[in-house]
Specification:
seven-stranded antiparallel sheet; 221 residues; globular; single chain; Protein Transport Mog1p, Chain A; alpha+beta
Length: 221
Amino acid sequence: MRSLPLPLALTARLLPVAVLASAGWALTSGPFAATPTAEHKSTRKTTPTAAAPSTSAATKTYTASPAPCDGVTEKTVKALVPGAKTAGQEIASTDKSVRRTCSWNALKGYNYRWLDISYEIKESDAAAQKSYEERIADKSGGGAVPGLGDTAYSVVNLTTEDKQQTREGVVIARVSNALVVITYNGSDFETKKAPGTDEINKGAIKAAKDAVAAVEDGQKA
C-alpha cells in the first residue's frame, strides 16, 4: 500500500488531541446580561420614604456542564467516527462547571473523521443568546435547525489544501443558559475528496441532538 502524504491542515488533526483542541478552542463569552424584574407599584397613599434600590434577576436554568464525553452515545460515535475509541478524550478546562469539551478522531483506511462537542454554561439565558448570535454571525451560509434546543443553527464548509478536500459541519445550539457547539469533519486521503455535504450536516446534527439531550438531563439551578 502506497504511503500518502498528509496536507498540513489534516496532519495537525492527527496530533495529540489535547494539543490541537487547546490551541484551537479559544472561546470568548459576551458580557453577562440580566433580565430586569417587573416593578410593582402600589396605589395606596403612603408617607414618602427612601426609594428602595432597584433589583434585577437573571434566568439561569443550568448550573454546570454535563460530562462532555458522555454527551453523545456510543452508537453515535461508532456511526460518525469509525474506529475511534468511544470513550473520547476530554480537553483540559480551567473551570469544568463553565466549559467542557470532548473529542473523537480516527483514520480508518484512508477515511478520516473528527468530532468534538463543547458545552458552555452562561450566567443567564440572555448572555447565552448574545453569545449564540455572535457565533452564528461569524458563520454565514447556514440555516436554522428546527426542534433542537431553544434555537439552533448549522453550517457546512468545504476547504482544500494541497489538493486535499475537507468538509466540516458546525452546529451551534442554545438550551436556556447553555451553549452546545458541535464540530464534525472528514476527508478521504485516497481520492482526496471530502464526504458529501448531506453526510456531514446530518452527522453534526445527529451528534447535536445527543449533546442537547445531555444538557436537558443535567444539573439544574
